[in-house]
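This part of the workshop introduces the protein records we will be handling. An example says more than a description, so a record of this kind follows:
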Amino acid sequence: ILRSLLQAGASPNCLDAGTLYTPLHHAVLGSWLEGVDALLGPGVECAVTRDAAGCTPLDYCRSKEVQELVHEYIESVESGYHAGHPVTFDFALVFYEGRWVTKVDGDGLGHHELKRRKVSKSVAAKRIAHGMVDKDSIKRLLRKAGLFVLEEKV
């Protein structure tokens, strides 16, 4: 439905009066990856703006919830991992013409470190058991947040 609305000319940049959320803020906060993909897709002029709290949708993508999912994934595939063990992702991120785009070389390269768990091991185990955490979904979520995963280091 969202893609149809955008193709029909609906504005991807309308703001909620109180929160100043854009549709992109709502899609990110709702973990609606298909909506994020539609709003950031080709042919859509979606501006990345700050809400009333001063946060962009990207700021919310870098939330502890995303970090929890990454840690749960790492725990499921790495037997030597423990809660205090840092997990790092190298990424490239550039803000260009109002949008976050990835960059794979030069000055835009960066480093983002994920350190802390927020859920119990039993909750993490249940998420893994129900197929809620896998490598592809984590990488897809990081890419949607503007993080380009070059290499995983555990």
Summary: The chain has two domains: 2-57, 62-153. Confidence is low (pLDDT under 50) at residues 87-95, 107-117, 150-154.
